[in-house]
């Protein structure tokens, strides 16, 4: 969950200076880790702690967090030396961060602690009591945010006797096994409009055009995100009301699996679609609602006839059309896929992440 900070001008500069120093120090720690070929935090602390305190002026606990950040980044890929953006996130734990009521947070900076105001809505306010552990201080377009972790109680999944299958696609973002379709038409129109506008502004190259491009940045992603929230909410509401579990295809490596089947005219649409976002929204919302969510093997779900079970590549006449060459059943291809998903063998239940 994101909490918007409303610092004074002086506090803003203090937070920004701290962020720059923290990430510059992280670059130094990463260089030592790479040179010494060690990701061990305790070994690194012996090597760099004094330098972080004297040269980079980091407070003790921020120095420890800096070592952890660099160590974890190096551990992910020891073949390269990690490099951090000057305005990369700072990890705050309970030793350097404390909430004062519901509208103020205390954060440690290079110049001591600052009490910064919080701006939030009803959604955030209702979940303030669930904030747990560490938080990330994020800087986006001149605005500071705290990305906090929520520890929400997860109800025991409901006992279900029926499964609602959901087929995720490109033309239709989602189709369920009862025939309800969630079209991607508006998302595609939005993508095309933003793409054309970006091209025009980039060609113009004026200061006004660059300001417009900066303002435009992120708008398309926010539209997609909102669309996926609406779709996942509606699907979960239906499953909950009908006492159903949910089943979707396993999405790992979906781009590799589907790249060869996507027409050239649809490639930009295919590559820009958020395959994992809708799955993630379904996952955590299902966990909070007590609805079991399963992944199923995607093999042949789009080629198998829901009526007679005949499986053939020829059954899939086009992106939108399914016609069984054995029994003659004709229907929407996404609907057929969703029915097969609802009946498929369960691979494994999805474990939802924290919100």
The fraction of residues assigned to DSSP E strands is 15-25%
User: What's the total number of strands?
Assistant: 15
The global form is: elongated
Q: Please report the distance between the alpha carbons of the first and last residues.
A: 7 Å
Low-pLDDT residue intervals, each spanning 5 or more residues: 255-262, 351-355
SSE order, one letter for each helix or strand: EHHHEEEEHEEEEEHHHEHHHEEEHE
- The radius of gyration over CA amounts to 25 Å
- Mean pLDDT across residues: 84
Number of helices: 11
Can you tag this structure with a few keywords?
355 residues; alpha+beta; seven-stranded antiparallel sheet; six-stranded mixed sheet; 11 helices; 43% helix; 22% strand; elongated; disordered C terminus
Topology:
Blueprint: E1 2-6, H1 9-36, H2 41-54, H3 60-76, E2 90-92, E3 97-99, E4 104-109, E5 112-119, H4 122-125, E6 131-140, E7 143-150, E8 162-168, E9 172-176, E10 181-183, H5 185-204, H6 207-216, H7 219-241, E11 244-249, H8 254-258, H9 267-272, H10 275-289, E12 293-296, E13 321-323, E14 330-332, H11 333-343, E15 346-349
Parallel strand pairs: 8-11, 11-12
Antiparallel strand pairs: 1-5, 1-7, 2-6, 3-4, 4-5, 6-7, 8-9, 9-10, 12-15, 13-14
Helix pairs in contact: 1-2, 1-3, 2-3, 5-6, 5-7, 7-10
